[in-house]
Design goal:
Layout lengths: L2 H22 L3 H26 L7 H14 L21 H4 L1 H22 L4 H22 L4
The structure holds heme C.
The site of heme C (HEC) has 23 residues, from helix 2, helix 5 and helix 6.
């Protein structure tokens, strides 16, 4: 067997084994930090858009389109961090996250669907239509926090 192909194969196998182990052994505390980091970044890129929705920040279509694109990826990231192994780690997540999982999942889907619509309308949509979609998106953040996050 060609030695080079063999070592590439071996490297791939080791890589796969490594990531499997890494995934199953992620400490609950680390998962919590990672999901919070994803939320913090959503907060960062949502911030100015929420301000625009409320008329507190001047409307800027370029910023909306850019941040909506970032949010499309970010809004998929926090959820695998709410693994059952994290339920006793201190965080702002309420116990309902782990007991009312169907409703929690629905709230995630709602966010992702509104963000997808925002991405679509932000590509050249009229200001009024974009703003209406900003309002709809913001409601999905607040709606979930209302039920699943400790009051700040
Ligand atoms: C499906 C529910 C859900 C949705 C939707 C959601 N969040 Fe969260 N968010 C949470 C939970 C639960 C926490 C607490 C997580 C923790 O402490 O581990 C949180 C925490 C946060 C935090 C605090 C992070 C920290 O640790 O400092 C910010 C900021 C945040 N969310 C912003 C947003 C924004 C912006 C949106 C919408 C674009 C959003 N969230 C949508 C459930 C949600």
């Amino acid at each position: 067997m060609n030695k080079r192909i063999f070592s590439i194969g071996l490297a791939l196998m080791l890589g796969a084994a490594y990531s499997l182990t890494a995934f199953s052994q992620v400490k609950p505390e680390t998962l919590v930090k990672q999901r919070q980091a994803a939320m913090i970044l959503q907060g960062k890129y949502w911030g100015p858009l929420g301000g625009m929705a409320q008329g507190k920040v001047p409307y800027d279509a370029t910023v909306v389109a850019r941040n909506a694109g970032f949010l499309e990826a970010l809004s998929k990231m926090p959820w695998d961090g709410f693994a059952p192994s994290t339920k006793d780690v201190k965080s702002a997540a309420l116990p309902a996250v782990f007991t009312d999982t169907a409703k929690f999942k629905e709230a995630q889907d709602r966010l992702q669907s509104e963000v997808s619509k925002l991405v679509a309308v932000s590509k050249g949509g009229a200001e009024a239509a974009v703003k209406a979609q900003l309002v709809a998106t913001g409601k999905t953040c607040g709606g979930c926090h209302e039920t699943f996050r400790e009051k700040q």
